[in-house]
Amino acid sequence: MIGQRLKDGYLFGDTFTTADALLYVMVRWVRDSGLKIPDRLIAYEERVEARPAVQRALCAEGLA
Q1: Among 10, 23, 49, 64, which residue has the least CB neighbours within 10 Å?
Q2: What is the DSSP letter of 10?
Q3: At residue 13, what are phi and psi to the nearest 5 degrees?
Q4: 55: domain range?
């Protein structure tokens, strides 16, 4: 179900929301734990991570 929503954009279409920020963190945790995640979630993580504000936050937290 979530995979269908994420095929091209964010959870609620083209608008990035707080729910997307939370899902991004969860996807990172799963990936960092070494578990396999579906390609669609990998693409979603990459889309979110490409956002300038996300890049700034990752750098500020020493995670980039």
Answers
A1: 64
A2: B
A3: 95, -135
A4: 2-60
